């Protein structure tokens, strides 16, 4: 009988402790308490912008609108990079992060996410290309030079062969020595282009036989060589060369470490260099240390606008994938259920729609 009473008392004590713990846990985030939420952030313009210790941006505005209903006390805790911020959320160093974090399969295994509050795209930034410079660059390219050299070599070959036959019996038109070789080269070029000046013509059987062969061969060769030269002179922008994500492997690519863009590149085994943030990435593109910067499109556009680099850098119209920005939480965080309904309601307000217009 005593043992039954003892077990009963232990159960009462155990469940009373659980109940008190649950109340305490709920009260930590309840309005009017002294518990402050710790919100992890890292500067990511235009979503998180820090000026003189004050924070602004679309993500900050979204949280302020949500908290008008929640009335929670909170403080921001800054981190130097996205990687360190994600580690802090995963390790429960902060209660949540309002940074524009894209929901991915790998991240969902480590973190919980709220309802997406912004739809974005993974974009590509590069150096702007002027048509004049592109033509000049193609003219001095090896493809163009090699096509010209091949053409000159073939003209010289047939001019030399005709000169061998004509140098003795047709000295008036095909002289001796280097001068005669040059005359043969001139005849070969005129014959190939079908200009037909008539100032020089082979008189010997051997010379005319070579000339006949050259006339037919020139028709074929001039068309193929012209096509090769035209191809080498064709201006093709980088944007025209990128038709799928696999085409990125033909360029030097950089992306922000720990970003969803970097995950995408790793998924397709695209070789890339990692940078800490968008500022470093834009700097590398500006200094031609890399060809393409793959990252979140609105962040790329904002950074280029902020630095007044629109004439120097550009963001391609082509995008690689759609991104959904959400708040991130430690696994099994009770805050997700509290914040989600308010966040969804906030996204339907006119005030939020007016804010988003400035970032689209």
Terminal CA distance: 73 Å
Cα shape: rod-shaped
Helix amount, in percent? 40-55%
* Tally of contiguous helical segments: 14
Report the oligomer: single chain
Low-confidence stretches: 1-33
Structural classification? alpha/beta
In the CATH hierarchy, the architecture of the largest domain is: 3-Layer(aba) Sandwich
- Into how many domains do the coordinates divide? 3
The CATH topology of the largest domain: D-Maltodextrin-Binding Protein, domain 2
The count of β-strands is 12
Strand content: 15-25%
Subcellular location: Membrane
Transmembrane segments: 139-165, 177-197, 209-230
Protein name: Transporter substrate-binding domain-containing protein
GO molecular function: ligand-gated monoatomic ion channel activity
